[in-house]
Lipopolysaccharide assembly protein A domain-containing protein (Cysteiniphilum litorale), 75 residues
Amino acid sequence: MMRLLGYIILVIIFVLVAALAVLNAQEVTFNYLIGTFHLPLILLLLVVFVLGLVIGMVLMLLSRKRKLRDKAIKE
């Protein structure tokens, strides 16, 4: 039952991402310090989302490592 629920949630997420991609297919200009480039909005959203995930995971792992080190020092 839980496996079926997981598949249903996965399908819903896939449909939402596909709809987001279709609705945000227009090209945007991304300006940064040394230049600009053009890319589809959905690609920019995906890149920003993945960067946020990576930064969040790194910060979480650093915090966990610090807590484990502090716990080991106390023992």
